[in-house]
Amino acid sequence: MEASGSQANQAFGVDIGGTGIKGAVVDVKTGQLVTERTRILTPHPATPGAVAQVVASLVSGAGWRGDIGATFPAVIKHGVAQSAANVDESWVGTDADKIFTQAVGAGEVIVLNDADAAGIAEARFGAAKGVRGVVIMLTFGTGIGSALLMNGVLVPNTELGHLELDGYDAESRAAASVRDEHGMSYKKWALRVNRYMQHVERLFTPDLFVVGGGVSKNADRWVPLLDLNTKVEPAQLLNDAGIVGAAIAAVERLEE
Q: pTM higher than 0.90 for the full model?
């Protein structure tokens, strides 16, 4: 599949997580998946070589040649992983752009942080579409991911889940995994989320919060319990957000 003609506005998006790696061709003008989303289990250990081979398999399976974007659960600076969350520690210091591009052999791969990709997608096609000013997306899962956008333009690698709050790393208190681990009710967990989001609100005075992660599907059970000055909207793209954001990043080279 060549990126020409009707495919000129398309790119292949890959969303790399600790348990699964998903990919599909995306129309970056509409945010719609052009092909069915394919998912392969994340290899363990999730070393650079092993993960790169899965990405190559997804791309070749789609017959794709052209722009490719990939999310990654790490701080990504100029294509290089500066950290590693739920993947092998050998990723730290690895040129992710380079290793994926070499493995795929069908086009340049642009890598960015997973929460940043979701934020881009929500700003273009989801809950933050058309919102001016400062938008902060927070993804509640195993940890807390974040994306900061100003007038729709990403400020990468904010890592707001690691803000110190009451002497703790914030995500160790308010991530969705904490609710699951301790069997907390949404009401009790929302108190922690509210405390955390009030802290972020004081620091950044955003115009909108977008909340994502698996718990966003049950937003009606906890978002109304939040007491914030800033409007809060659940994410809309759900499982497609990373794939869509990665594809946009590939076309627009957001990490250059």
A: yes
